[in-house]
Design goal:
With about 425 residues, the chain is an alpha+beta fold. The chain has 2 domains: about 325 residues, Alpha-Beta Plaits (2-Layer Sandwich), CATH 3.30.70.20; about 60 residues, no CATH class. The protein contains 10 helices and 19 strands. The strands form 8 sheets. Strands 12-3-14-13 form a 4-stranded mixed β-sheet. The chain starts with a strand and ends in a 16-residue tail after the last strand.
Length: about 425
């Protein structure tokens, strides 16, 4: 297999095709600390793209409760088990942030036969979920776990940050439009491709024959087979909105339906510039670049799988670190520390989440007065009422917002008064 660079795992890796990168890459950041599992994103996507016959099981966007939830059920646990079987004890990270284990592309060579007797995949290590695993998109919702000894698993004395003994969190997921898609690598028909202009991964349904190799290979299980048409489908990143062709966009790139519908203000989507080595080109005034590359509070989901996903998450503060490190890699502790006590710029950038439906390409901060000082976990914290300004593709101002929330006193007589 060709060797391709993967900056998320800190080394080159094997991939079935030679490296090729788009000019810009569709990417997003989701702040797990804010998600309330209202499922508004889930239903926004469902009502837009997957409401027809044969799509009943298709949830291109879903919100699942960790540690027990998942759609399809157990998707990540089963894949991690396959990796461990292929390379026992080898799934480790070095102190320098280099992944020393095997990715799903490298582990496929020595993988054992599957439980059903099928031969191990030649290109990508994966599995095909059974029908019943697609049956319950909200399985184990709000189910908590505990390392304590309280009655029923709950702590009688309560819990406190930074880590809970009884915990769960919501993980919002959609197609990561990976830089090295496993679905693309596995497709025998070459029906899957990445668009040059934005890196969105699409399935050419005229070429697809429904072999479901993409479903088997994708570690996140986001391509889904449609029995009525006998082809696979997946998230298209709401391409008409991204291109500015949706009637609502006014010709400007707009965020996807799941992003725009989020009432918890947990999401930000954008298009980042990609360098010749597949890494993000330096662009410190791009909000996603700042969150991922500068502040390093947003981390990829299961980077050890090797697909270099373009979905990033600000990890939850209350969850035991070993679990989060397995899910997001070795940068978890640093990311949580920086998010818990944000510096001046990070606090300003966090205000950009869900203030507008249009895609943000850059930002600027206008400094404001100091309004508050305190200590958080023994560290000094200062709040400044800065103004952060968001700009669009052509440098036009999209909006501006302040760090400090406005205080509004409702008059005694107001609409709706009795």
């Amino acid at each position: 297999m060709p060797q391709v660079p993967n900056w998320q795992i800190g080394r080159a890796m094997e991939y079935p095709y030679a490296a090729a990168y788009p000019r810009r890459q569709f990417a997003f950041v989701i702040n797990i600390n804010r998600c309330i599992a209202c499922q508004t994103c889930t239903m926004a996507c469902k009502s837009t793209w997957t409401f027809s016959k044969g799509q009943e099981h298709m949830w291109w966007t879903n919100v699942e409760t960790k540690p027990y939830g998942g759609y399809p059920q157990g998707w990540d646990v089963k894949l991690l088990q396959l990796l461990e079987q292929a390379n026992p004890g080898g799934q480790t990270w070095s102190s320098a942030g280099r992944f020393e284990g095997e990715t799903i592309f490298e582990a496929a060579h020595g993988a054992a036969p599957q439980a059903d007797g099928a031969a191990a995949p030649g290109r990508v290590l994966g599995y095909l979920p059974a029908d019943d695993e697609w049956a319950s998109p909200n399985i184990h919702e709000d189910s908590a776990t505990s390392t304590g000894s309280g009655v029923g698993g709950y702590e009688p004395g309560g819990v406190s940050l930074p880590e809970h003994r009884t915990w769960f969190f919501y993980l919002a997921r959609l197609c990561n439009h990976c830089s090295y898609p496993a679905c693309l690598a596995a497709c025998p028909r070459k029906a899957i491709y990445k668009r040059e202009e934005d890196g969105v991964v699409l399935i050419d349904q005229a070429r697809c024959r429904g072999y479901r190799k993409c479903v088997e290979a994708c570690p996140y299980k986001k391509p889904m087979y449609r029995p009525t048409t006998r082809v696979s489908e997946q998230c298209i990143a709401c391409s008409p909105r991204l291109e500015g062709k949706d009637p609502e966009t006014g010709g400007r790139p707009m965020e996807t339906r799941c992003m725009a519908a989020c009432i918890g203000q947990v999401r930000m989507q954008g298009l980042v510039q990609v360098g010749p080595d597949g890494d993000w080109a330096e662009d410190p005034r791009h909000p996603l670049y700042y969150l991922v590359k500068v502040a390093r509070v947003a981390l990829p989901l299961y980077p050890q799988l090797g697909t270099q996903p373009n979905g990033y998450y600000i990890p939850p503060r209350w969850v035991p670190r070993p679990y989060l490190e397995q899910m997001f890699g070795p940068g978890v502790g640093q990311a949580i520390e920086r998010y818990t006590v944000p510096d001046r710029e990070l606090l300003a950038v966090l205000q950009l989440f869900r203030r507008d439906n249009r895609v943000i390409y850059s930002y600027k901060i206008e400094e404001g007065p100091k309004v508050y000082e305190t200590e958080v976990h023994g560290r000094p914290f200062t709040l400044y009422d800065d103004t952060v300004i968001a700009y669009g593709r052509d440098g036009e101002e999209l909006f501006r917002t302040k760090v400090e929330e406005p205080f509004y006193v409702r008059p005694e007589k107001h609409p709706g008064s009795i």
